[in-house]
Amino acid sequence: MQVVRQAKSHAGSVPMMVGIGAVGTDQVLRLADDAQRAGANALLLPVMAYQPLSDEEILTFYQTVCRHVSVPVCVYDNPVTTHISLSDELKSAIAALPGIASMKIPRTRQP
Prior knowledge:
By secondary structure, the chain is of the alpha/beta class.
């Protein structure tokens, strides 16, 4: 988190979103704590991608993180890197969670 602290010292009052990610919820929560202490104003968080997850597990993951943090969360839906594709229904359920501020959905390559 040294890089985050350094960036924050130069950002001044400009809000800073910090990307975090890990293969377990406990690790994600520790990184979220570290990022907040370092000055993050928001978190960019992809789905954990170590193993396939059910929609319920993904929703519970985001609920857990949102309950734990005091900054807004931006969901990073990037199936190219996570190999998990969020359905429209799941995106809607996640977007309705308190603490979810936005969702980043990068353009995918078309064959």
